[in-house]
Amino acid sequence: MIINMSQTKSILYGAFFLMLTLFNVNTIQAQEKNNDKINYVVLTKKIPQLQPILLAAEALKAEDGAAFGDFQVIVCGKEIGDITAPEKVTKFLNRADELGVQIIACGFSLNKFKVDRAAVPKDMKIVENGILHNLQLQKKGYISITL
After folding, report:
1. What InterPro entries does the annotation carry (predicted)?
2. Are residues 10 and 57 in the same domain?
3. Which of 39, 84, 98, 99 could pair with 69 in a Cys bridge, judged by C-beta atoms 3.0 to 4.6 Å apart?
C-alpha cells in the first residue's frame, strides 16, 4: 500500500485536529474545577460541631487570603431539629455570617424527622438533599469533609 503526499497531509492534519480538540476539552474541564478560589463544604450531623467548623473556616480564610472562596456547611441527620432552637444555633449563624460561611439545612432530613420548615432560621438556605448537594459541590472541585 502506497500513501501519496496528499494522503499523508490529510492524516497529519486529522491527527493534529484530534489532538487539539482533546487538549481543549481537558482545558475546559480543568477551568471548571479551578477557578482561582479554594472552596470548602462540610457535612455535619450535630450543631455543636459548628464551633470547630467555624474555627477552621476562620483559620482557612486567614491562611488562603484572596484565594479563600465559598465555604458551606450542610446540617443533616436525626438532630436536624436542633436548628430550630435559637439558643443552640443563633450564635453559630451570627459567627458564620461574619465569616461569610453559609449554613445549609438538608430538606431530606427535615422531612424524615418531621421538622417544620417554617421554624428553620431565615438565615439558613434549605437544599432538598444535603448529600446530593455535597457531591455536586465536590464535582465542582470543593474540598469536602463529613463529620
Report:
1. DsrEFH-like (IPR027396)
2. no
3. 39
